[in-house]
Amino acid sequence: MPSPSLDVLAIAAHRDDVEQTCGGTLLKMAGLGRRTGILDLTRGEMGTRGNAEDRQREAEAAAKILRASWREALDIPDGRVENTWENRLKVARVIRRTRPRVVILPYWKGRHPDHYTASKLGYEACFLAGLAKLDIDRALNSQQSAFSHVASAVASVVAGEQQTSGAKPHLSAAEFGTTGSRALPGGAESTRDLPAGADTASLMPHRPFKIIYATLYYDVRPTFVVDITDQFEARFESLMAYKSQFSDQEAGKDIFPARAEIRARIEAMARFYGMMAGVTYAEPFLQKEVGLVEDVTAIPVKSI
Amino acid sequence: MPSPSLDVLAIAAHRDDVEQTCGGTLLKMAGLGRRTGILDLTRGEMGTRGNAEDRQREAEAAAKILRASWREALDIPDGRVENTWENRLKVARVIRRTRPRVVILPYWKGRHPDHYTASKLGYEACFLAGLAKLDIDRALNSQQSAFSHVASAVASVVAGEQQTSGAKPHLSAAEFGTTGSRALPGGAESTRDLPAGADTASLMPHRPFKIIYATLYYDVRPTFVVDITDQFEARFESLMAYKSQFSDQEAGKDIFPARAEIRARIEAMARFYGMMAGVTYAEPFLQKEVGLVEDVTAIPVKSI
Amino acid sequence: MPSPSLDVLAIAAHRDDVEQTCGGTLLKMAGLGRRTGILDLTRGEMGTRGNAEDRQREAEAAAKILRASWREALDIPDGRVENTWENRLKVARVIRRTRPRVVILPYWKGRHPDHYTASKLGYEACFLAGLAKLDIDRALNSQQSAFSHVASAVASVVAGEQQTSGAKPHLSAAEFGTTGSRALPGGAESTRDLPAGADTASLMPHRPFKIIYATLYYDVRPTFVVDITDQFEARFESLMAYKSQFSDQEAGKDIFPARAEIRARIEAMARFYGMMAGVTYAEPFLQKEVGLVEDVTAIPVKSI
Amino acid sequence: MPSPSLDVLAIAAHRDDVEQTCGGTLLKMAGLGRRTGILDLTRGEMGTRGNAEDRQREAEAAAKILRASWREALDIPDGRVENTWENRLKVARVIRRTRPRVVILPYWKGRHPDHYTASKLGYEACFLAGLAKLDIDRALNSQQSAFSHVASAVASVVAGEQQTSGAKPHLSAAEFGTTGSRALPGGAESTRDLPAGADTASLMPHRPFKIIYATLYYDVRPTFVVDITDQFEARFESLMAYKSQFSDQEAGKDIFPARAEIRARIEAMARFYGMMAGVTYAEPFLQKEVGLVEDVTAIPVKSI
Amino acid sequence: MPSPSLDVLAIAAHRDDVEQTCGGTLLKMAGLGRRTGILDLTRGEMGTRGNAEDRQREAEAAAKILRASWREALDIPDGRVENTWENRLKVARVIRRTRPRVVILPYWKGRHPDHYTASKLGYEACFLAGLAKLDIDRALNSQQSAFSHVASAVASVVAGEQQTSGAKPHLSAAEFGTTGSRALPGGAESTRDLPAGADTASLMPHRPFKIIYATLYYDVRPTFVVDITDQFEARFESLMAYKSQFSDQEAGKDIFPARAEIRARIEAMARFYGMMAGVTYAEPFLQKEVGLVEDVTAIPVKSI
Amino acid sequence: MPSPSLDVLAIAAHRDDVEQTCGGTLLKMAGLGRRTGILDLTRGEMGTRGNAEDRQREAEAAAKILRASWREALDIPDGRVENTWENRLKVARVIRRTRPRVVILPYWKGRHPDHYTASKLGYEACFLAGLAKLDIDRALNSQQSAFSHVASAVASVVAGEQQTSGAKPHLSAAEFGTTGSRALPGGAESTRDLPAGADTASLMPHRPFKIIYATLYYDVRPTFVVDITDQFEARFESLMAYKSQFSDQEAGKDIFPARAEIRARIEAMARFYGMMAGVTYAEPFLQKEVGLVEDVTAIPVKSI
Question: Are residues D122 and D207 in contact, defined by beta-carbon separation less than 8 angstroms?
Fold first, then answer.
């Protein structure tokens, strides 16, 4: 049974990014009855602390706190988010499956290359997802089988053997770099990523109506903010659900000060953006389009 | 009886400015049941065609078309809108009298000095209007009587006479430059501008909640636009109500082409801004504050 | 016989882009006796309506209306314009063959990824085309034959056969992703794209003198505009030559309103940019360099 | 005895502005042995709470907390800071008397007109103060006596009396608007503002070496910040010294929450700017000049 | 006999400004047969070296070198260029007398307040000059006589005398601040500034076609530059004609190094702007309007 | 023996780039006792004049003049600097080996694609170099051996032979495009680039503290400049060490004028940036972070 469409899909590079940038907004949307989802492009294997499995469990816990209806991770390598055709197809596939009205992407500038690349990758995937003539699965399979075949063939020759159909190639496809296939058959995560054929009915063209950019960045002026005063505490808890990221840090120290320091920073940022709009806590966003106002007497935020 | 507060007050330098920049929005607001008003800072005596009286009649006709509840003109000289203390007090006085929630000002850049100066003057008047300790009438009278006295005194001495209280000074106050009084006693326009003492009760401090900038300017990107598809024709008619401005132009020519050319330009601009937001006709505005969004799934304007 | 150099070459992603952005300028240049050309990077196979063959015929018809001396399409996949080494070589090859003085590229921002990527691809191809030591055909053949060989070898092994020189690989090269060869031998379009060796004499290094950016985009201020008042109607007809794009749209409706709506938008944009410079219709452009003025009394466009 | 030069002079419109924008920096400079001063342009008579006398006492208490060597207030009307010749002369006079190396001005944009006007007024006064041929006292006296004479003369005539030299004019000079004299002879504040002739020796031309802009404004990126982690508490206390501003606010409520709310905002801002530079609390500044770096390995603030 | 119109009028605050910003362009225009003029707003009385008379002689010598057809100075006080109604009228009067097609103003930002204020004053004067209903002489006389009368009257009263028509007021009008008259009767300079009534025929409304901004400022990107390679030496000589400015500086030192240092700086700036456009020496300008290009193959300045 | 860390590493695309952008700064840092290094990404084989060997000798001579402690070149193809995973790993490897505190990159905009791509590539390599879990050599070997194997296998099949381990592939890896290995075994340059295993100890994670951007570009305002007045002549000599670049140019002409012209341009630029900060010669830089100032009285560069 195909799942219903999402109202909002937040796409980010790493498993705790959304919790830091737009988690309050996702929770607020859930409170308004919207279905929200989170797509993490990578699985956190490059993180200094913890491993991909720890982070998956934590991500699921965080998703519950944020009341997200859907969360998955792609298998793009951590620290190597690239805007390739294959990655665009993978993200576009998720967009067709989840059919969101609004996509939240990371801001297109940032300190971490994975963040700003995820922004561009996500945008172009939204575009691809809407092309009526694009058969994503076929394109993705061509892309992957071609490389898989090359790898297999080469491996066979290298090994002095005849290639057997379906044999696992000796060289991992993952070693082929930017265009190599990284879809691991049968993995728990990829199962969700590559649904069965019956699901293909859901892969109809879909283009999100709106794309906004979450910008928890220090020196850019947001287009608008979302009041998360009522969601702030839960949003903070969703970040704290990443125990592997924060408990190691606390090892050998008093646990509370470290957590207090993190909280102080998170709070300062939320309050700073809140003050811009006259509310207590807020999350900042950018949009590229101009606004459209129906009633000028209803525009919020005091001018003077 | 003090008149009820306005929901929206549009302030502009000249009597047909509002019709060209935010007339559609005013009409739309009236359609939503809002009370709207227009303050013209000058009376059009410098216009190449027509005179102040013609333009007053035309302004009243245009206001009717735009369904404005209130329209007045100050006596600031046309071509010489200056951001003086006295002018700020005069505008602040109107803001206290009309108590608008939203003030629409001209954009702070522009070709015509009256336009960009009106923007700054209007902003600072909004600020003054909210100062609890400022008695505007007293400040305005001090300002005006001081100059009036100087003028009178000098005139008397020059004329070799004793100054008689209430006597009309021989030198018009208007000749005293930037700070000189230009309030003409008994004039039809100034009556409305200087209400009787009973009205003073309405001169309580008031600061508008919102200030937005109407920017019918070719090369600035608006913060938002207002869809005026349904108001476009009436807005155009409100501009055409300024017959003194458009009929001279037509003298000696076929009247329709001239009007057609004006209409083509007006339409191209409204359509251009409409296209930005996916509607047919729109008027562009800037605001200085960030936005505040309650539901990200309700943000209009398609992204992609 | 090598064809004479072009004065202006417009490069765009899709077959009807040039008609919407700089078609009037191309026609005006032709009227001044300049030789103009159009390079479409893709062939339109992803377009919702019509197919590549339809679009080729339409593009030729449009080129006639615009009086272009030269028009070709590359085989870059529609919806997947990427700034790869191979694509840069392909575009650089066209620049060496056509030797334009001025290259018109799409603006470097935009809604459609193909558009902004075409801008960067085109710029870097202009750079490459001027490198004296770069043998483009050799570089392109290396690039393509390497992949072709890989594909063939793999195909052979997969099929359990010995590879036969010249045999068509079983796996289409097109499936190799960003770096795969997409040159289809013997195709009508590629014939024009890959001229015979005799033409190699024309592949001398060439760098365009000037690169300008056509920017039919709603919210960017152009550096300059070109008056296309006299070319506007023909430019509109060149767009209407894409019947596959516009006639489907009209099916089941009154044909004129749809066309009228398109025309109204096209006209509003052209008029908007025209008003910026005091002419009726214009097309907007950006350039990165500062201007150089010989006579300040001859600078057009009224200031005040 | 002329007082020694100041190292830093902070100029602001209102008596508690400096405490909110650069108080921590002033205190830090004092800790480094620098002599600091504060010039408040107005005396706070328009403030909703308290009066000018209260605010003077509070300003002195705050100055002690910030360890400022010097603090004075000019008599420019609160809510009416204007960039007039007379005001420029008054500020320039203070600059010549205090001879600062660095002047801190408010940022040139802002919500409050007094703030942004103070920025321009302060800048132009720094310029005037350095003009060798400008005799500020003579210029100021001319300016003031001319108006004083006009006022007196007029007053006499109005009153039907002969003017007596030195008699106090019946019309307060303060009523003459932008250029009227507001120097009240013998007032406690003006004594400090108008030193005796012996002090004139100190009125030699002086131009500050450096002008920087304190910008506690929500949406502008600072050029640099100053780490005030060690000064943060004292800076907050200096603001709390303005009891008339903060105790009224607390009347009828639990006093602590109100103060806690103020503190939370102040802290969020300081922490936000601190995070930009990797310190706990900071104050933001803009400068117009480029920087000059002697040792690139000594540039602070981590990049990545 | 009214003098013929100017093609170009450069307006600047001080007598050697034009020589440093657009002198090469003026000379080049003269070489193309254009009539050029220079309006200096002030007379240099605040300059550290020399006096107004020296500077007048030097300005005339410099004008000869630059082959300017016309040069005058207004009587606006040096160091106090203000954008007042009176000053705007004075400059507008010059614009009507000289009727330039192009006006060159200083850039609207700068270190010296006189420079950026001159930019705004000049712009608004261009606007006023075109108002058909504005009688500049009448407006200017009203303005001046009003103040003159006030001054005279007051002076009389102060002195206990009856005012005698035409008597020289005891208080110089110059002491009245921003709006006081500074027209010195009978001065050589004011004679040129206030032509006889016969000349009034030339005071017909006139608005320049084009306003450009000379921007010899270090960190702004020009819109365009003018190649002054052939004019560079003469332009440098026109600056050196200000002996009072440069010979004092050299007193007590080797004259050549000082001059060499000035030349090195002037040359570096001219060369820097020249490099932007591929020429040896150039002067930079800004314009606010978009450009209008007739032939894209004729756009100068290499892109790549 | 592992070499000591560098204080400053300048990364540029071509062998004479550093000499033109930040050579003076490198020399100045050496004079302050800092260890400096230069990484050239390419070897200059596309240069119009000379060849890679000439340029290597010249680069070494220039490095001596600039007193650099370390200089190497990578084997990225000249004219084809791409931001690939492999190139990022190669640069990251150098960063781990040299462990610089400060990295100087080219400005992120520019005329030459190699320059702006080097900027992004260098930034992302700095990021990768700091990832604790990234084993660069393993990642690089996987990347390279995968492609090498493919190439070998294919070559074997094509040639109808059995692949022999270690045999040189018939198809140069360099032909595989953007991701192909270009590491030539045993080459003098690659020896330095690929140190023996003993050196692996030095490949610990390392992230530079500071990244700044050298911007010898005409129309961008630098964040700061470095005074190179004392280094200017030596810096110019370091550029002149590239005899292959400058002697051809002089062939058939008087050698001095050509050199004089180059010097004049270099000098004009250095002087222009020097004037911004009140010194004779300077080099311009951008940084993305805000500054952090300890003592506001010590900020250099006069404001007024």
Answer: no
Residue D8: Cβ within 10 Å count: 28
Contact yes or no for E221 and C293 at CB 8 A: no
Q: Does the global pTM surpass 0.90?
A: no
Question: pLDDT-derived band of residue B52, with 50, 70 and 90 as boundaries?
Answer: confident
ipTM of this predicted structure: 0.84
State whether residue F139 sits within 8 Å of chain A by CB.
Answer: no
Can you spell out the DSSP letters for chain D?
A: -PPPPPSEEEEESSTTHHHHHTHHHHHHHHHTT--EEEEEEE--TT-SSS-HHHHHHHHHHHHHHTT-SEEEEEEEPTT-----HHHHHHHHHHHHHH--SEEEEE-S--SSHHHHHHHHHHHHHHHHHT-TT--HHHHHHHHHHHHHHHHHHHHHHHHTS---TTPPPSS-GGGGGGG-----TT-HHHHHHS--GGGGGG------SEEEEE---TT---SEEEE-TTTHHHHHHHHHT-HHHHHHHHTTS-HHHHHHHHHHHHHHHHHHHHHHHTSSSEEEEE-SSPEE-S-GGG--S---
Round to whole Å and give the CA distance between A61 and A242: 8
Structure tokens at B39: 């303050």
Q: What SS3 state is found at B104? A: strand
How far apart CA F8 and CA E293 sit, in angstroms, is 47
> Any residues with CB less than 8 A from the CB of B45 and at least 6 apart, and which?
B51, B52, B77, B78, E133
Whether C176 and chain A come into contact, CB under 8 Å, resolves to: yes
Contact partners, residue A203, CB within 8 Å, separation at least 6:
A93, A96, A97, A136, A137
Distance (Å, whole) CA A299 – CA B1: 30
**Chain E: closest CA distance from residue F275 (Å):** 8
Min Cα separation B286/chain C (Å)? 13
Residue whose pair of structure tokens reads 């030591």 in the numeric block: C133
Whether residues A290 and B302 touch (CB distance < 8 A) is answered with no
Burial B111-133 (b: 16+ CB within 10 A, else e): ebbbbbbbbbbbbbbbbbbbbee
Distance CA B103, CA B95 (A): 9
* pLDDT reported for residue E257: 54
pLDDT band per the 50, 70, 90 thresholds, residue C155? low
Per-residue pLDDT tens digits for B169-200: 333 323 222 222 222 233 323 323 333 444 55
Q: DSSP H helical segments within F22-130, as ranges?
A: 23-31, 52-65, 85-98, 113-129
CA nearest E232: which of B195, F268, A282, B30? F268
- What is the per-residue pLDDT across E62-107, written as a single tens digit (0 to 9) for each? 999 999 999 999 999 999 999 999 999 999 999 999 999 999 999 9
- Strand order of the β-sheet with C210-214 is C70-73, C36-40, C8-12, C102-106, C210-214, C282-286, C224-227, E291-292
Of the partner residues B131, B162, B179, the one whose CB lies closest to the CB of residue D46:
B131
Report CA torsion sign: A283, A284, A288, A294.
positive
> H or E segment at B146?
helix B136-159
